[in-house]
Prior knowledge:
With about 210 residues, chain A is mainly alpha-helical. Helices cover about 70% and strands about 5% of the residues of chain A. In chain A, α2 packs antiparallel against α3 (about 60-75) and α6 (about 160-170) packs across α8.
Amino acid sequence: MTVQPESAPVVAAVASAGLEEAALIRAAQNGDHAAFERLVRAYDRSVLRLALNLLRSPEDAHDVYQEAFLRVYKNLHLFRSDSNFHTWLYRIVTNVCVDYLRKRKIRREEPAVLETADGERDRLDVVPEGRAEGDPQRALLNRQLSARIQQSLQALTARERMVFELRHYQGLRLRAIGEALGTTEEAAKTCLFRATQKMRAALGDFV
Amino acid sequence: MSCETVRRDLSLFLYGELSLEEEQALQEHLEACPECAQARGAEEALHAALDRRGLEPSPELLAGCRRELGLLLKLASARERGWLARLREAFSGPVVAVWRRPAAAVALVALGFFVARWTSPARPGDTPAEGQIDRIRFVEPDASGGVRIAVEETRERIFTGRPDEDRIQRLLLAAARESEDPGLRAESVGILNARPELGGVRRALLEAVQHDSDSGVRLKALEGLKRFAAEPEVRDTLARVLLSDQNPGVRIQAIDLLTRQKRQEAIIGVLQALLNKEDNNYVRLRTERALQELNASIGTF
């Protein structure tokens, strides 16, 4: 196999990152707080993004972030060095998120529309999306679409929603999702398949 | 590959989750079938719409999460190194004295409560009310010129109900036994006195009358036991109280309860023993009077 000239540093960087992570984990397991903080920093943005997209509420995402990393902290001594830390971490995070989703389902889903001083607004509009909406007509359509997406997400089971979020927004492969959820790639595929079918049925005429 | 299969697998195709063979077959079908190619366009539009919905956490949210996690980890770590570790060591050794087991259980229940409180993250905008602050754990300036303060707080919940309701009774019993405030213990015992026929209440009153450090609470508990002063367990307890309680008012109350009973001769020995050691004049007087009423000697022991 011929290694491309630019690949060598990339491979070295990846290997070095893996070694560094293993060293960080060992140090954190031995009580090094700075090492634990560096581990958190390596993953926390994607954890928060997952929670925010799943729960659609910054407050809930904030809570999930705290609970997930506290669980990681308390259980880090159980992590085995021959496992994949990313998968192990996501297993904890997804468990916390699924618990949250189920609890919320029990106590009633958040309404898609919020009452504000300016009248009714879509819940998603009050969360900054980082996209300017200059065209009012387009903004209206986007709001309607967002509401429809939200409704269709509510129709998914907690597991289907988790698989969908991990695949669509986190870009995780189905194999990794299966490992994170403690199931098989095939089961994750079935979940994703069901989720997209439901989304298509709900949104097909809208897009 | 049929149109039905293609339509079903389009989403997985766009996610790149089909096997190489499946992907190749689907691709070939799309090139030959305009309807399915159109369906692919619709599927791509759906994916694009879903893409637009993706949220990115704001830097403020991420920074807030990191700050609070740092704080919670400090608390968790401090507790693990401190009394939690000592508690674990004290009660998890191979030989645990039997008398320490209930203490360990109580301590761990309390521990669970406090850990839950301390590790519950404060939501943005939460402010502890002054009356809720029990203790400031630490204060730490941060790099941005702000300050982080770890506050140990308790929150009140109000339970309402009738005193004979199970949950209310459990709370009253807990308050009577465990509260550090003697006024609260006396109040709880006073309410429990209305139902002394219940086993749990009777036990609590007997414990209070023997072990509560506050004489007001012991007197309240004696009131609750009035109706049961003829029962052997209560009589035995009253006799012990009579001979050991440091408070003259409690001893007098105990004399009253014991001498109200029909089988008073059984307490003569106790009263004589009390008279032998009693140095409070009024209690001596009451004891002598009780013995005279029983036609018992006050000087033959």
